[in-house]
Amino acid sequence: MANMKLIKQIAVNKKITIRKIAQEVGITEQGLQSIIRNNTTTTDNLEKISKVLNVPISTFFTENENSNIPIETEFSTNKIPPGKSLSNDERIDILLSQNDRLITVLEKHSQTINTNSNTINNLSGTINNLSYLSQNETRGQLPKNVSGEAS
Question: What DSSP designation does 59 have?
Fold first, then answer.
């Protein structure tokens, strides 16, 4: 799950105002405050925010839904010393590492989505059964149980 509250924390650390981020993203300051408060936004906005803050988009995703600790990435400003230039091989290694982490997060979320989908299907079946029973009860057509009484 994305953690939009990190926007404010990163902005403070980087001495960037919420107003400046909002302007760069193309939304109002109130709109950005709403994104942070409601913890929801579009992928497009999140990509723009990550560019303004100069952090990878994965920064806003947690290892699991109970964790407030962002996924560590080598692209974090505290991971690469200022002024250090990276070779292409180093950049590729960093990108591959980040890619692996994103795949892991997406796989976990995919499992959660599948579980939720199965739960919804089960609930839908239960609702259909209850609806059937309710309709037949009003018509006096409930199925008989073993003792011959209406169930």
Answer: G
